[in-house]
Amino acid sequence: MEELSLNILDIAQNSVRANATQIDITVAELPEQDRLVITIADNGCGMTPEQVAHVEDPFYTTRTTRKVGLGVPFFKMAALMTGGDFSIQSQVGKGTLVKATFGLTHIDRMPLGNMADTMCILMGCNEQIHFSFTYQVGEKSFCVSTEQLQQVLDGVPLNTPQVMEFLRGYIKENMDLLSGGAS
Question: Which of 15, 108, 128, 129 has the smallest set of CB atoms within 10 Å of its CB?
C-alpha cells in the first residue's frame, strides 16, 4: 500500500468483519518525539492468543475468500522500516487494539494519505457501526464521531451524497488547520 490511510482502511475493515459496534481511529503526529502514532481500537469479537500470534503471518487469514492476509504484515513492516514499533492486543469477546508507531520524519515513512476519504468510506458504508476519528498534532486535536453526526443529522443517513461531501470537507479542513495544510 502506498499510503497509511489505506492500511487504516484495511485494519478497520477487519474490525467491521469482527462484528465491532464501535471503532475508534486515532492518528497522532507528535513532532516533539518525531513520532506518528496510529491506533485502531474496536469492541469486536477479539482474537485468541493463538490468532494474535499468527495475525502478522501473511499466509495466515481467517477469511475464506482468499489464502493470504497482507494488511497487518504490511502495516507492521511500514512501521518498523521507519524505526517505529507495532503491537496488537486482543481479547476474545472484548475487542482488538492495533497500534503502529512510525518515525514521523523518517525518509521511509509512507505519506498519511487521504484520511478524509478513508473516514467517509468507513462511516458511509457502515452506518450501523459507531466510528470516531481523532487527529492530533502536538497538543491540539480534532475529533469527529458518527454519534455526533447522527444527532445533528436527525435521521438523515450519513451516506447521503451531500452529507458525505460535507463530512469529507469537514475532516480535511480540520486536519489542514492542525497540520498547517500538510496532511
Answer: 128
